[in-house]
Hints:
Blueprint: E1 2-7, H1 17-21, E2 27-29, E3 41-43, H2 54-58, E4 64-69
Antiparallel strand pairs: 1-4, 2-3
Amino acid sequence: MAGKVTFREERCKGCALCVEACPKGIIQLSKRFNAGGFNPAECVNEEACIACGFCARMCPDAVIEVHRVDR
């Protein structure tokens, strides 16, 4: 089972809790800025996502959604 991760980048505050929570190490903070002036989180290798949902559970602002998909 693989995962599809989506971020509401405009609400992300760049706290990096999701970066630390990801067991696959595929989430990082972007080099670009969102409208709030923060570097939002992004998934850099969605093919490696295992849809564990740790990133979404750690996010204090509920900006991450994880969906299981068949590939």
